[in-house]
Each structure stands twice: as C-alpha cells, then as structure tokens.
Amino acid sequence: MLRIHFTTEDIARTTLTTTIDPLWEVLLSRFSLTGRERPLFLQPWMARLRSRPDLLTTVRPAVAYLTDLAPLGPYFPDFLTPAESAAGLEAGIDAVRATSLRRLRDELAQLSETNRRHGRATPSWLAGLTDSRGGKLAALTAALREYHRAAVGSHDDLIRMSVENDVALRVKALLAGGVEALFRGFEPLMRWRHPVLEVSYAVDRDLHLRGRGLRLVPSYFCHGDPVSLANEDLPPVLVYPIAPESRWESITAADPAGPLADLMGATRAAVLVTLRRSVSTTQLATQLYTSIASMSRHTKTLRQAGLITSTRSGPALLHNLTPLGWKLLDGSQGGS
C-alpha cells in the first residue's frame, strides 16, 4: 500500500490533469503490450495495432529498450517519466535527453540492484546511456517518439474520449465537494483517511508531500493499481487508471454498430448475453460448452473490466451483470 500524507497546504495544491501524460502512456502501454494479461478494454487497441504491420514495426525499437529499462516489477527509472511531459511529448522527450549523467547513473544502479534481488540480469547496453556523448540516450528518445506516434497518437480517438469521460466524472466530484470528495470518488483504488490517502500499490511505502501538493493524472493504459515515482524528492504524481465505464463508452461510441463479439471475443460476449439472469460458473461452462477452468478465467476478466459481479452462494459462485454490463450489452443489440 502507498500512504500519501497531506497537509492543509498539500490539499490546496493538489491538481487534476485533464489530459494524458504522453510519456507515462508510452511506458504503461508497453507494459500492456508485452504483459501476460491484457485487459479486455485494450482489445480494440491491440486489434488496430495488429491490423497495421507498419505500426508494429515502428514500436519494436522502443519495446526492446523499455523491456530492459522498465521490466515488469517494482521499479523502473524515474527519468523515463519526467514532470515536463505534462506539457506535451516534445517537452518530455527534451527532458529525458537532458537527464544528468549523475541521475542516470544513480537510477540505473537502483535498477541493477532491483534486478539482482529478483534474479534478473542487467543488460550491458544500459551502461551506454551514461556515455557523455549521449548517443545511446538520443537513440532511446528517438525510439520513444516513434513509439508514441504509432501506439498512442494513432489511437487518439479512443484514448482522448475515454479520458475526457473520466475527467468529467472527477471534475463533477471536485466541484461538488472539493479535493476530499474527489479522493472518495476513486474508491476502491484509493481510500481517503484524513490526512492520508491510502492507495492500492505494488509495494508498501509512505510519501510525504511536504506542501508540494499532488498531481493526479488519468491514464488510458494504466490498469490495476495506480503508479507513482520511486523518488519522493521529485514532484509528486499519481497516475491512475480511468473508470471502466469511461473506457467502454468511448469504445462503443467509436464503433456503435460493432458487434459485441468483435469487441471482446465470442465466448466473453456469449457470457454477457447468458448473464441476463444470474448464473453460476458451472452453469456457464455447461451452457457455453467450455471447461470450468476456462470459464473462471473469462469471468475474472469480465469482472476486472467492471462488467459483471460475482458473489458466493454456498458452494456456487453466481455471476450477474453490472449496470455497465447491461448498458454495453443492450447498446450492442439495440436495446432489450
């Protein structure tokens, strides 16, 4: 858990960013692109990438760099996501290229130590980033720029609409009840226990804002827990996954005639249709001619996407559509 400690001054200086941060989206989309589990809401994005071999070719150099620089795990170097990126991609790229050699050495040493503790080798090429001539760092930033163009910028219609939907929800809470109401609206990802914001997080740590406030940044590609910087002396930021309903509304708006099966796969679409009434995992597996283990995986994915709920009733696990699941199902079929 991450515990963020606020003073009265911190609450007054907390801000909500109304757009994505381009370099955070580069990093987080790479995690989604190469991770073992891809969230259901990213399937349209993945389908677009797969349909464009030129885009897949474009992202490969940055994926190779980031696979070594930002492995899936508890640490990645903060210089990859500078505060300047809030002003746009080029400002962020310039900040990455201007990273001091001392900071590069310190953060790469921390990455190497983290790799050692987790039994991973640190690639030798990373030492080239600290070469005073800057050639390797220039190659990295060029790859990041091209990756953003192909994997983020080319999908602005999906991403921007989703984020705008989410920001509208957050601003409504902020206007109605101030920053503390904004925090409460993030439950269960975060819990406001004045003066501490408790955040579901990969590691246990405390962050003392010390009057600097907190910058909240919505992310299309973040899923699961929010993300922050490792170095608490840097400007505090918390990148959070936007709400499931914001994602699905943008996907269906972008392609209102698109069949549900094309959006999420035939089996998961069939699960949603079947769940017009409460059904157990075993019943779903029987009705859809698949194994219980496979059905458990599908229902877990739909639950994480906010489309169904699952409750225990004796030995059975019963599944039901959420309001968002009903909306998506009825919208794809022209109403019930």
TrEMBL record:
Domain of life the protein comes from: Bacteria
UniProt-recorded name of the protein: Transcriptional regulator
Stored InterPro entries: Metal_resp_trans_reg (IPR051011), WH-like_DNA-bd_sf (IPR036388), WH_DNA-bd_sf (IPR036390)
Organism: Sphaerisporangium rufum
